[in-house]
Amino acid sequence: MLRIGIVAGALLLAASNCAVAETSVERGAYLVNTIMACGNCHSPRDADGRLIPDKAFSGGLTFNTPPFVATAPNITQDFETGIGSWTDAEIKRALVEGLRPDHGHLAGVPLAAIMPANFYKALLPEDLDAVVAYLRSVKAIRNQVPDPAYKAPVRRDAYPDADAGFSKADLAGPVKRGAYLVTIGHCMECHSAWSRGVSDFRGGLGGGGRLFPPRDGSPEGTPPTIVPNITAHPTAGIGGWTDAEIIRAVTHGVARDGRPLKPPMAYDYYASLKNSDLADIVAYLRTVPALP
Ligand code: HEC
Ligand code: HEC
Fold first, then answer.
1. At what angle do helices 88-97 and 125-136 cross, to 10 degrees?
2. Measuring from atom 24 of ligand 2, which residue has the nearest CA?
3. Which of 169, 211, 212, 253 has its CA 20 to 30 A from that of 62?
4. Residue 237 backbone dihedrals phi, psi, to 5 degrees
5. pLDDT tens-digit series, residues 16-73
């Protein structure tokens, strides 16, 4: 018995040492495949809406909106159809400024605003490095997505927390750590008040109301999904929910009353968030000013 206890203790210690020694690629894999959910847009799905694991990141959803039609491109390491020929600096520029490289296909053309660079600009330098390090490890898949068409100039709405930025020192407290995760997870892009294509991240932060059309393959007549209010309002928002109820909604797509929640929120990605990160996200959401 005692020996089993020691072995278990040694394993625990090894596991915690592993966490300390997380490599940049591991950190990037965690960010990309949980909170940043890149594959929710960039990975293809089958007819039932399930991700196709061996095709991850090879090109995904097509967004047909008034200002543009754009397909989330292949971001695997394929040289011709992916981003294998891009330098690290070029990948970083696409992520945090939404700009393509000055060479190759569509040279210099800004990326449509659906690519959330206005949120990703908040990434700490080491996290940006980690995302790029992980993308370099993604196996090349050949797949050319259709070219985008732009019907209006690209405009990204400024997100105050991303513009203010975060420092390592800021991330000492749970609320700020949660704000960082909610920023790089672009949660408020969907969950804030939205009108005529413009998000209100100041007066309408977290207030909900934005409409999403049903996904391809939904039965005819499916109504659009209304994004809920996630401010601290006790009845209109999630102020009256327990921490466990909020975490269940985020990670398992289950509403407070047990109803399944609809896409496009990336529940299947958030399911792998660490408990400590989920606790920080909840701590931040509790501070979002209540809106009716
Ligand atoms: C909400 C959907 C969405 C999410 C989330 C998203 N992207 Fe994108 N991304 C797009 C779309 C759409 C484009 C193409 C826009 C265009 O063609 O104008 C794009 C473009 C890109 C490009 C430029 C590729 C090229 O060939 O031009 C890169 C690189 C990229 N995304 C990487 C990422 C990474 C890494 C993440 C996660 C950290 C991510 N994206 C998250 C939708 C998304
Ligand atoms: C791409 C858009 C999108 C993003 C990004 C997004 N959500 Fe959601 N969220 C939704 C939709 C849509 C629903 C559920 C709609 C339904 O079925 O009623 C939802 C539901 C929720 C709920 C349940 C609220 C309720 O009243 O049922 C919570 C809590 C929530 N989201 C928190 C978050 C957090 C935290 C993040 C970031 C980590 C996030 N969301 C990112 C679209 C989004």
1. 120
2. 228
3. 253
4. -110, -150
5. 444 567 999 999 999 999 999 999 999 999 988 889 989 999 999 999 988 999 999 9
Task: From the CA of 255, give the closest atom in ligand 2.
Answer: 27
pTM for the full model? Answer: 0.93
Look at the domain 22-156 and name its fold: Cytochrome Bc1 Complex; Chain D, domain 2 (1.10.760)
| Start and end residues for every CATH 1.10.760.10 domain found in the chain | 22-156
Q: Which helix (H) or strand (E) holds 211?
A: strand 211-212
Which residue from 30, 61, 96, 115 has its CB within 8 A of the most atoms of ligand 1, so it is best to mutate?
Answer: 115
Q: Which ligand is nearest to the CA of 136?
A: 1
Give the mean model confidence (pLDDT) for residues 91-99.
98
DSSP letters of 28-58? HHHHHHTTS-HHHHHS-B-TTS-B-GGGTTS
- The tens digit of pLDDT for each residue in 170-196 reads 999 999 999 999 999 999 999 999 988
Pocket test for ligand 1, best of 32, 41, 155 (most atoms within 8 A of CB): 41
